[in-house]
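Anyone up for a design puzzle?
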């Protein structure tokens, strides 16, 4: 994939996360400190209970102490309870802090990603599949959120608990502490081995999820085709396979830990044994008090649990790592087609002169150029028609006008200004485009027509619908302009959709109108009507029209014939007829009449 800088981000994953915590960093640090505090407070219970045991329960002077110094007894008891309550409060607030910060980060990054995706160019959209992008803004981002809300907290929790207990152990009895802690580096080594095994699994898992989502998304949006070909069973099987793949990979990922788990668990289980054996000896030899023994025993879990937790933490960390990789790919991706640094603003209308100078073009992922040395000029308010057989490069050519793609050679100028020097938004606002495959939004017809300029009123919407010969069928609909059309315009015929898309293009009162086969699904009569109104628009407009029908093209000021990406013929209807080339043959084919009549008809024009 040449689109992004995979693995070559300006920041590491954690730095990137930190950057996105801007605004919540202070509270997050407070949260982390809170985690340390409540973990250290865990020590208070065994500390006080150790003291109580030594002074009032098991020592030689226990009875005496209880009688003469009961105040201390109550004092210790109250401290123990007090710290426990305090700890509960801190844990509660802390949970809220983590949740708050993680949601803030999620919100921020998701908006940022959406913004990024919106501003990408065409190459981006042909590189990434929708299901994959959806996975990035949902599942992958959730793994990032989980990192902030849970994984980091667990790391701090484990290390602070382990650290505090280790220090406390050394403070009580360094020999005993050493015996217990000497085995812990082994756990880190096992976790390191585990990490190496589980990291690629998470990358794979994430791909499987994206694959499954892509199948689902493509299938749901393309469900008409599925039904038309009665391929439901096939699609169900295909999804089942993807689902199974995902589930299997999930299981396999879980299994990786199971391989390492017995070792870590074994080490953790060894601790009470060491405690019993070594601690027992120390106790018998009088090298350790009963109180200390109780405190040690009461805290064994606090070093065993972080060891057990490490596998889980590493697992989640790897999930974050795989997911954030995908998120950061979009986060740091740069649209290649964007405003130049010194881009010129052009808020006013264009006169509408279009010039192609020696333009060649090849798709980044394509093997061969699709346009070769294209040169032509259209004067303001002229109409240019582009013809040519399917796949010859017509759509590719008009896509260069709004700078959806950039020529590999040559340049495109509007009003003699090279378009790459203009601000993209200013350029595109002046172009009304009706694309070849019409996409309408699930909105009312009025909303769809006014999409490019929501400030226009109902009257104007109706006017543009009239221009595009859509007003008749719209007014026949039960709710007229308020009729809601389904996703992608479900509920409308192909020709109806084309007419709404034409009205939408006209509604921005563009200085350049580009129509890509926009009347192909419209009957001849309606098409004539559209032709007529396009001639009498109430704003000046240069028109670039791709069409197959002679009836559409013959009135154009200029006709370009494209063959295999070359302009092979250019001129007016009459000039091209006189050439007796491709255009002439086309006229003969479409009118179904002989040479003489064709020439006569040309003379009549
Ligand atoms: P049409 O609409 O069927 O009448 O055909 P045209 O003339 O509009 O053809 P066009 O410009 O869509 O395609 C020209 C060539 O470029 C054709 O061989 C297919 C190829 N092509 C079109 N779109 C893409 C694209 O996004 N990526 C790549 N790699 N090739 C494309
Ligand atoms: Mg096309």
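Challenge accepted. My sequence:
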């Amino acid at each position: 994939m040449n689109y992004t800088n995979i693995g070559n981000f300006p920041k590491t994953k954690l730095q990137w996360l930190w950057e996105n915590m801007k605004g919540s960093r202070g509270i997050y640090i407070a949260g982390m400190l809170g985690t340390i505090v409540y973990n250290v407070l865990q020590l208070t219970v065994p500390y006080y209970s150790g003291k109580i045991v030594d002074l009032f329960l098991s020592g030689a002077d226990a009875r005496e102490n209880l009688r003469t110094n009961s105040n201390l007894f109550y004092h210790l008891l109250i401290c123990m309870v007090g710290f426990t309550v305090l700890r509960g409060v801190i844990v509660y607030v802390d949970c809220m802090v983590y949740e708050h910060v993680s949601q803030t980060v999620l919100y921020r990054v998701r908006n940022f990603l959406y913004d990024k995706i919106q501003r990408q160019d065409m190459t981006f959209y042909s590189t990434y599949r929708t299901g994959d992008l959806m996975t990035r803004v949902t599942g992958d981002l959730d793994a990032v959120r989980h990192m902030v809300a849970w994984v980091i907290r667990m790391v701090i929790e484990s290390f602070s608990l382990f650290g505090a207990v280790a220090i406390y152990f050394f403070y009580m009895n360094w020999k005993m502490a050493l015996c217990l802690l000497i085995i812990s580096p082994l756990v880190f080594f096992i976790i390191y081995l585990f990490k190496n095994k589980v990291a690629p699994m998470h990358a794979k898992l994430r791909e499987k999820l994206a694959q499954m989502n892509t199948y689902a998304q493509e299938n749901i949006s393309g469900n008409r085709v599925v039904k038309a070909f009665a391929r439901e069973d096939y699609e169900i099987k295909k999804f089942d396979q993807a689902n199974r793949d995902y589930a299997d990979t999930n299981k396999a990922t879980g299994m990786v830990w199971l391989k390492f788990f017995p070792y870590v668990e074994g080490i953790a289980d060894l601790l009470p044994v060491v405690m019993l054996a070594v601690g027992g000896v120390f106790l018998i030899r009088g090298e350790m008090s009963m109180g200390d023994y109780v405190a040690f025993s009461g805290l064994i879990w606090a070093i065993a649990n972080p060891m057990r937790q490490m596998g889980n933490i590493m697992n989640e960390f790897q999930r974050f790592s795989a997911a954030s990789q995908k998120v950061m790919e979009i986060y740091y991706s740069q649209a290649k087609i964007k405003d130049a640094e010194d881009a010129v603003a052009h808020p006013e209308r264009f006169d509408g002169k279009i010039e192609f100078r020696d333009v060649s073009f090849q798709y980044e992922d394509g093997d061969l150029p699709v346009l070769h040395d294209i040169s032509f000029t259209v004067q303001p308010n002229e109409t240019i028609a582009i013809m040519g057989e399917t796949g010859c490069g017509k759509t590719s050519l008009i896509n260069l006008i709004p700078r959806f793609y950039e020529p590999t050679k040559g340049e495109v100028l509007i009003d003699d200004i090279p378009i790459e020097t203009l601000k993209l938004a200013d350029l595109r606002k002046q172009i009304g485009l009706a694309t070849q495959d019409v996409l309408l939004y699930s909105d009312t017809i009025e909303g769809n027509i006014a999409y490019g300029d929501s400030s226009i009123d109902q009257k104007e919407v109706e006017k543009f619908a009239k221009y595009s010969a859509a007003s008749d069928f719209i007014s026949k609909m039960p709710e007229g302009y308020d009729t809601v059309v389904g996703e992608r315009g479900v509920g409308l015929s192909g020709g109806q959709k084309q007419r709404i898309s034409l009205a939408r293009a006209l509604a921005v009162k563009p200085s350049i109108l580009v129509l890509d086969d926009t009347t192909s699904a419209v009957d001849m009569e309606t098409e004539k009507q559209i032709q007529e109104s396009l001639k009498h628009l109430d704003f000046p407009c240069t028109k670039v029209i791709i069409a197959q029908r002679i009836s559409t093209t013959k009135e154009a000021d200029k006709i370009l014939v494209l063959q295999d990406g070359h302009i092979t013929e250019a001129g007016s209807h009459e000039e091209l007829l006189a050439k007796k080339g491709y255009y002439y043959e086309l006229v003969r084919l479409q009118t179904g009449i002989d040479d003489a009549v064709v020439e006569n008809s040309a003379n009549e024009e």
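A detail worth pointing out: The longest strand covers residues 354-361.
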